[in-house]
1,4-dihydroxy-2-naphthoyl-CoA hydrolase (Desertifilum tharense IPPAS B-1220), 540 residues
Amino acid sequence: MPFEYDRTIRFAETDAAGVVYFAHVLSLCHEAYEASLIAAGFELKSFFQNSEQAFPIVHASVDFRRPIYCGDRAFISVAPQNSENSSEFNIYYEVFIKNKSVAVAQTRHVCIHPNQRSRQPLSHEILQWIKLYQV
Amino acid sequence: MPFEYDRTIRFAETDAAGVVYFAHVLSLCHEAYEASLIAAGFELKSFFQNSEQAFPIVHASVDFRRPIYCGDRAFISVAPQNSENSSEFNIYYEVFIKNKSVAVAQTRHVCIHPNQRSRQPLSHEILQWIKLYQV
Amino acid sequence: MPFEYDRTIRFAETDAAGVVYFAHVLSLCHEAYEASLIAAGFELKSFFQNSEQAFPIVHASVDFRRPIYCGDRAFISVAPQNSENSSEFNIYYEVFIKNKSVAVAQTRHVCIHPNQRSRQPLSHEILQWIKLYQV
Amino acid sequence: MPFEYDRTIRFAETDAAGVVYFAHVLSLCHEAYEASLIAAGFELKSFFQNSEQAFPIVHASVDFRRPIYCGDRAFISVAPQNSENSSEFNIYYEVFIKNKSVAVAQTRHVCIHPNQRSRQPLSHEILQWIKLYQV
């Protein structure tokens, strides 16, 4: 079951065209990913500043179907998935407003040793998190 | 009674020093102000893109007492207050984490006709909102 | 010939992992696109708040090859390209630091009437801009 | 002599009211401060991730005199000043567009040991930088 997250779109996320600035939709998805980590018991500060392992994003994409406005209540589904590569995982996101899909996105993460930036296999904890929310 | 808002600090708000980037604390306060408008019945999109009246910020200040980290649960109090000037109002914010005050901030807003950008007295609706949450 | 843009990476773009936050790389590319519009004679304010035509992004993707740090001098190439669809164009970006490719990105834009949000063919002016910088 | 910095206002900095989002003006000032550090010979990455000393902002304020639009060419002056407190310094900023002052801002920085977060006197290097650009 994907993780479900919702929050109201804020003024700071809009641009002079009157809608959400495109790159902020990816930040919204990342925020939903963070909420899924908290829900699974991770402590965010140590997760993102861990000297043993980090999960930087190596690829991101997003498709926009409808404009998003300040004040819109956005629902985001977060579905992680194992990759064929044992040091990577993908996350698939879908953003809904009033039950309509307004955007879909994807991020690919690779597990590294933060200092050398060399790859390592996904840890047991992150594999558990994937299992919890994968489709 | 001030309006109370809370949310978790996100990774995108941090900087390479490992704490929340200073200007993002003002955005967090503005977000709490937006939440207070929603709570009082305003529709955000039309509030911020209204052709009759707008409330741009003419002054903002913030004092930082402690560092704020990714994953911290922040509680923000929002207390609006009338100004001596009938076309202005102030908002006073305080940010708490684990019951400790980590920042205080202030914004001053002026009511204008958006096209001419000339001043006008505060509307009845915004005066009601001030009354609702003022200290 | 692609348009070439460069600027220094700023502290506000970094996150607590010590590198540029992933979504900000797309904003950096959009900024380079804006610079190419200015170089071609467009006036940015009216370009982005035009009531006759707008070019919202319907798709964006980015691949990260190396981490980007505060203070890095980034060189971005901007290469627009016609789409088979007469109301769309693509932009291909590549970000270099010290002559090494650190990221590649793409955005797809569709030409619309801003109010109805219906599609329209690309204008003569934008076709000229594409011709100027396409590969 | 204050340090002088200029750059074009970007679409990502605007909001749905059609002007620059208020908190981004402080980020623009911080960016000008970063440029002054580079001009004085500092290496930004190590300046902001130094384990010996850091200069977090303890106070910031900004006054807005005129709206700022996408595409505007902004000139920012950066004037640091010693504080009576030997572990602090202030920076005064003024933002000009077409020779008109559109905003003034201030940040107050304190010199700390990053790990214990205890205060320490300003280093020789930062005192030199203040001397270089103070009024």
